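User: Please fill in residues for this 126-position structure.
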């Protein structure tokens, strides 16, 4: 069983930065695909950034150039560095994982991920 625990959310002003962390356990860390999703009330969960088992990454167009996904295999931790934050980035951010190697075209598809954390709130004020 894979367990995921997010941290690092908070409130920042527009243009600020935050780094989210996702501590993972219950599997061989390097053998899974992982991603960050976000969701606001009344909207579907949106894929933000993902990293596959081979290290390939994918970003949503809305965050390209501002967000960076990375992982520390020694610490079993996934990160999301978020710079130049905008009010529209306000959401609950979730860490997700799956044992499959998904391939680039599926990395941001929420339905492909079997394991989810409980989320961490990010609020960006203008």
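Assistant: Residues filled in for all 126 positions:
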């Amino acid at each position: 069983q894979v367990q995921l625990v997010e941290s690092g959310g908070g409130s920042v002003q527009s243009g600020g930065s935050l780094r989210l962390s996702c501590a993972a356990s219950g599997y061989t860390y390097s053998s899974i695909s992982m991603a960050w999703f976000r969701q606001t009330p009344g909207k579907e969960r949106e894929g933000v950034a993902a990293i596959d088992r081979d290290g390939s990454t994918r970003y949503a167009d809305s965050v390209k150039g501002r967000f960076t996904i990375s992982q520390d295999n020694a610490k079993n931790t996934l990160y999301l560095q978020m710079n130049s934050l905008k009010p529209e980035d306000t959401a609950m951010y979730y860490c997700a994982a799956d044992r499959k190697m998904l391939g680039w075209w599926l990395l941001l598809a929420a339905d492909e991920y079997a394991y989810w954390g409980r989320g961490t709130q990010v609020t960006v004020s203008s």
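For context: The CA atoms of residues 50 and 107 lie 6 Å apart.
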